[in-house]
Amino acid sequence: METRVAVIGIIVESNDSIEEMNQLLHEYGTYIIGRMGIPYRERKINIISIAIDAPQDIISALAGKIGRLSGVSAKTAYSNV
User: Could you give the 3-state DSSP secondary structure of residue 15?
Assistant: First the structure.
């Protein structure tokens, strides 16, 4: 199956969903190239970027599951490669 490279940008506004989000990231870990998290203490949010190489349906499923978590928003940018 053909894969795509993408970045999922995540903003966490509520710490209540962090454990569930980390569980999702662990579940999809075989596709994840890397992860960077930045705590923005002044705004009391966390900014996370996930680099992923996976079939498009897998990327969409992960981003959708993350975006449905309470206090979390996610957007995906795909490469043309």
Answer: helix
pTM equals 0.92
Give me the number of domains the chain comprises: 1
Query: What is the rounded distance in angstroms from the CA atom of residue 81 to the CA atom of residue 71?
Result: 32
What CATH number does the domain containing 64 carry?
Answer: 3.30.70.1150
Rounded to the nearest 10°, the torsion over CA 35, 40, 78, 70 is 90
Judge whether residue 56 has pLDDT over 80: yes
pLDDT of residue 1: 81
Task: Compute how many other C-beta atoms are within 10 angstroms of the C-beta atom of residue 30.
Answer: 8
Domain that holds residue 59: 4-78
